[in-house]
Amino acid sequence: MDPKQLNGVSLSFIGDAVYSVYIREHLLNKGLNSGKKLQEASKCYVSASGQSKAFDHLFKNGILNAEELEVYKKGRNAVNHIPKNGKLNTYLKASGLEALIGYLYLNDKMRLDEIMQAILKEVSYE
Predict the structure, then answer these.
(1) Could you tell me the pTM of the whole model?
(2) Where are the beta strands (DSSP E) in 21-119?
(3) Block means of pLDDT (10 residues each) for the chain, length 126 residues?
(4) Which residue, 30, 41, 44, 98, has most beta carbons within 10 Å?
(5) 16 catalytic per annotation
(6) Which of 16, 56, 108, 113 is catalytic?
């Protein structure tokens, strides 16, 4: 499978799952073991607002390269519906980040780890 040939929706689909696994592992490594605490903490990361915040951190700190920004835009621009809850811009950023995560998972796992570590250092559940 060539990730460069996948559309933004497909990249976001796989990226959502990969992002969630990274977050869940991170929370377990932090020592959280209660279902309720894990669920509440994961919302800070995997919600559209959490993902939007994560993208803002990556963008404002110049962490993403030109290719990664293009993949982000591909995912952001693939959104063709308005979310029921929340702001459209937040949802677009989240979809773009998911596409980027999906692309990196399929194309460059070392870079994916770098990006996720940058996110995990910035976004907090506490």
Answers:
(1) 0.90
(2) none
(3) 83 95 91 84 86 94 96 88 77 94 96 96 69
(4) 98
(5) yes
(6) 16
